[in-house]
Amino acid sequence: xxxxxxxxxxxxxxxxxxxxxxxxxxxxxxxxxxxxxxxxxxxxxxxxxxxxxxxxxxxxxxxxxxxxxxxxxxxxxxxxxxxxxxxxxxxxxxxxxxxxxxxxxxxxxxxxxxxxxxxxxxxxxxxxxxxxxxxxxxxxxxxxxxxxxxxxxxxxxxxxxxxxxxxxxxxxxxxxxxxxxxxxxxxxxxxxxxxxxxxxxxxxxxxxxxxxxxxxxxxxxxxxxxxxxxxxxxxxxxxxxxxxxxxxxxxxxxxxxxxxxxxxxxxxxxxxxxx
Length: 275
Description:
alpha+beta; eight-stranded antiparallel sheet; 3 helices; 13 strands; about 15% helix; disordered C terminus
């Protein structure tokens, strides 16, 4: 091309034509991408110690405050009172082993909720954590797979609940189990979890001189959005088929630690401080 040649600008294409082009090539370029190559975002509560709220930390996000809900992939934040709207699509309970923060922190392994490793852990009354013989922390964790509703569309996400959040998890599951619809014969049936919608906000809590934010879950009833229902049903099927799996190492406010140092959990210990 000559040094001073002028490149002619192409004609603008209207939205309808652009959509036609996209439809012909939908999904192109992603043929070799697997779920291991993608990160399903975690939705976590920012606490006072979260790096996103500290201006001196490289992970700081302008405007981020404790109590906000944080999307670990998009980096979006949601105000405590505004919260988020989600549709549950799956639920998994695990025991997760972490290196203590004082030793550098970090994910070690995840085990089934009934794995006998839990019998090797001892509850430390001072730390309020389940400690394994190797010094690592064993954390009971409830994973809620959800479809997050945003102005940008529906997004597959995960909410992990530990320690003081376990009580909130049980309350949420009870709300799901209580959502019903009337069948054609007049009898009542349980709505599939992806047929319900919930408003999640955060609320301040305190114990033993410590303060933190926890989840508040309110039912918004049955959804009336066919597209959202379809997305939720598809996500639910992918979870059951094992196509979508939690990547525990990414569940916190950074890839090296969960959101606040995880607390242990044993029977009657779910009021402990979640950091």
